[in-house]
Design brief:
- This protein is α/β, with parallel strands linked by helices.
- The protein has two domains: 211 residues, Glycogen Phosphorylase B (Rossmann fold, 3-Layer(aba) Sandwich), CATH 3.40.50.2000; 164 residues, Rossmann fold (3-Layer(aba) Sandwich).
- The protein is 39% helix and 18% strand.
- Strands 3-4-2-1-7-8-9-10 form an eight-stranded mixed sheet, with helices on both faces. The protein has a six-stranded parallel sheet with strand order 13-12-11-14-15-16, with helices on both faces.
- β3 and β4 form a beta hairpin.
- It is globular, with a radius of gyration of 22 Å.
């Protein structure tokens, strides 16, 4: 039976990051499967995406992270939600807007599903020495998520982390990519020349993602450029972009800004290796994208990327607190053709088994689970018509 789903999200288009990528794929699959969706998110986005009506919710920007808004809905938001009559409310990364979604769900007596995407408690370590507030943030997030009928997270490491911090009813929502787009293909020589700064004969390492403090992108500089013959291309943008350009000045590094569509695919295919130094990733979608384009991955041994990489089999790990290990691993890849080919083949095989359609079908089943949990927990005061509808799902 088709569902009516309201989505409350702290981030959405035109912002580009891993969460938005997942949301766009989610909306596409929900439309394909005949479900009706209404999205409440930050202002400035499209009015519609993949058949879903998108409603902007205003609010001030965070002073230390201006890409994020403190979204506070007005009365019209609840009125539109009430008219929509959702069967379920999906709250993405609840923090500012999410609590309103939870409150509205209680008023409408409908199930809620909350998905955890960002390691916010650990992010605070990277901003103004904010680590002292980490316990308070864990408490706040736990209190929000434990109101939901069901909670989802993107990796087994995050699943363990959340359960250890007292989160209830948590399940693993797997991640996948568009295997029609991220594919091997011929190397675009113009892109290779661009990314290598006109030195296509050198060993080209790339990083794709947002340029933010918590990504630890500075840690690549010293180990990568200890010896000549290695080039770095940093593909992306974000609040830390200008600082990174200054930090990497006078090194063989190219900054492209954000790339999309065929340009992004060609950038992956042009690379000899992909470096992923972040230690705050709940998954690491870009590592899977690189593998699908037959690019070997070197990553910090931490977080969600541990669900993707098997060290020495389909990728290489360095210890998170020892970024100096990056240099020897890059040189090992450059000099050992047999190892490189093994990692490429095994990485590609792994990525080919992670389609986004399958992961979104898993999400739809979780929606139905959340509805059953809500019914079993005894929604007080629900109207008879709504209870009959939930019973049929």
């Amino acid at each position: 039976m088709p569902l009516r789903i309201a989505v409350f999200t702290e981030t959405f288009l035109p912002k580009i990051d891993g969460i938005v990528t997942i949301l766009c794929l989610m909306l596409q699959r929900l439309q394909e499967q005949g479900h009706t969706v209404m999205v409440f998110g930050p202002p400035g986005g499209p009015e519609e995406y993949a058949g879903a009506k998108v409603i902007g919710v205003g609010g001030p920007r965070l002073p230390f992270y201006p890409e994020v808004r403190i979204n506070i809905p007005k009365r019209r938001i609840y009125e539109q939600l009430e008219q929509f009559q959702p069967d379920l409310i999906h709250i993405v990364n609840p923090f500012f807007l999410g609590p309103f979604g939870l409150s509205y769900a209680r008023r409408l007596n409908v199930p809620t599903l909350a998905s955890y995407h960002t390691d916010i408690p650990r992010y605070v370590h990277h901003y103004h020495g904010g680590g002292f507030v980490e316990p308070a943030i864990w408490w706040y997030l736990r209190s929000l998520h434990n109101q939901a009928s069901l909670n989802l997270c993107p990796s087994t490491s995050t699943l363990r982390d959340l359960r250890e911090h007292g989160f209830k009813r948590v399940r693993w929502w797997k991640r996948g990519i568009d295997l029609q787009r991220f594919t091997p293909g011929p190397r675009d020589l113009a892109m290779r020349n661009r990314l290598s700064g006109g030195n296509p004969q050198d060993f080209l390492v790339i990083n794709v993602g947002r340029h933010a403090v918590e990504k630890r992108l500075e840690t690549m500089r010293a180990p990568l450029f200890g010896k000549p013959g290695v080039r770095l291309a940093m593909i992306g943008d974000g609040p830390h972009h200008a600082n990174l350009r200054g930090y990497y000045r006078d090194t063989p590094t190219v900054f492209t800004g954000a790339l999309r569509g065929d340009d992004l695919i060609n950038a992956y295919r042009a690379a000899d290796a992909f470096i992923f130094p972040s230690t705050t990733e709940t998954f690491g979608l870009v590592a899977l994208e690189a593998m699908a384009c037959r690019v070997p991955v070197i990553a910090a041994r931490t977080g969600g990327v541990q669900d993707i990489i098997e060290d020495g089999v389909n990728g290489l790990f360095f210890e998170a607190d020892k970024p100096e290990q990056i240099g020897p691993l890059v040189r090992r890849l450059r000099d050992d053709d047999a190892l490189r080919e093994t990692l490429i083949e095994n990485g590609y095989d792994h990525a080919r088994g992670r389609s986004w359609q399958a992961t979104m079908d898993q999400l739809i089943e979780y929606y139905r689970t959340a509805i059953r949990v809500h019914r079993q927990r005894g929604p007080a005061g629900a109207g008879r018509a709504r209870l009959r509808r939930l019973a049929r799902i």
